[in-house]
Specification:
Blueprint lengths: L2 E6 L6 H13 L2 E7 L10 H11 L6 E6 L3 H8 L3 E6 L2 H17 L4 E6 L9 H9 L10 H12 L1
Parallel strand pairs: 1-2, 1-4, 2-3, 4-5
């Protein structure tokens, strides 16, 4: 059984993230979405909110689960029994960053492979930062995130 770990901050989860998950569950026996709590990154949504939103979003996918994590991703991957780190790539900047991370992770955890999935054309421009900027400017975000995420973002922004 091949287990893929899809780590990220997911603040917020986007349709691009969901696309990678949906494609990942067709490629791997099990996909674990690992929602990171990073102290060096200011987030709009709490880790608990992000985990719950992702659980609601992927509820129909049988071989997928969402879990919170802290610390080094290779250690968490070992705890989860993961064989693969799943990463989405939107552009050459993502590729350069993710390649560096993949090589570092391979040094830290030989045998843990990284698989890159290129973003679908409809999602190559999407980023969590961009969505928060659109939200801050009062723009419509519903075409970029699942409906449940759009509502949570609007609620969080009004606080």
């Amino acid at each position: 059984m091949t287990v893929a770990l899809y780590p990220g901050t997911f603040d917020p989860p986007t349709l691009g993230h969901l696309d990678i998950v949906q494609r990942g569950v067709r490629l791997f026996d099990r996909v674990v979405i690992a929602v990171g709590a990073r102290i060096d990154k200011q987030t709009l949504l709490t880790p608990e909110q992000r985990v719950e939103l992702l659980r609601e979003t992927v509820a129909g996918l049988e071989n997928c689960e969402v879990v919170p994590f802290e610390g080094l991703i290779v250690n968490f991957a070992r705890e989860q029994g993961a064989d693969v780190l799943l990463r989405g790539i939107r552009n050459s900047t993502d590729y350069e960053y993710e390649s560096q991370m993949a090589l570092t992770n391979r040094r830290l955890a030989p045998g843990l492979e990284t698989v890159f999935l290129p973003a679908s054309p409809d999602h190559t421009f999407l980023s969590s930062t961009l969505i928060k900027e659109v939200l801050a400017a009062g723009g419509a975000i519903e075409e970029f995130v699942p409906g449940v995420v759009a509502k949570a973002l609007r609620d969080a922004w009004q606080r």
